[in-house]
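Much of our argument rests on the idea that a fold can be written as discrete symbols. The record that follows shows the chain in one-letter code together with its fold in token form.
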Amino acid sequence: PGDRPAPKDRIAWASLMASVTSGELEGEAAERALRQVLRDDAGNPQAHQRLGFILAERGRCPEAEPHFAESIAGRLPSADPYLGLAMCQAQRRDVTRALATLREAARAEPGNPIVDANLGLLQLESGRTPEAIAALRRALVIDPDLHQARFALARALARAGDRDAALHEATDLLGRLPASARQRPEVERLVAALR
């Protein structure tokens, strides 16, 4: 009703979106398709989010950030555009803004372990060890197999002076990793340093 387009007028861009979401189009072809969708539907939050991630993955965060912001403004019901925006903000070393964006992500999608893990990682990098420990623990309660979060938790606990808890987390992580995991040597070094 009103000024909304008729569904039959959306068939072409829906087909393009399906090609991108299915993985049929990747890289430059996916970027072109998403830009075409946005020419016809400038406020499409899903297209903005996907284009943002394509640009960010190709090292083009300055171009990606406005697309993540548009996706957030379009009220996409997901923490993903916030995660993309925070990743780009952290990449340009705007830690304060990245942390604020991650807190917004936590409000948009409470209980998302990826949001808590990213909060913890960024807090650890910025020297906020107690906050990092709390966020990483929240993430691991929800998803115990977030290996990077568990490794960061072990480091944070060691930094806080709790070597026993750090060793427990590092040993637990070592037991969870497959024998062929490329992270094993780094985790083994941490375990050895904590013993």
The chain is about 75% helix and 0% strand. The first helix runs from residue 11 to 21. The mean pLDDT is 91.
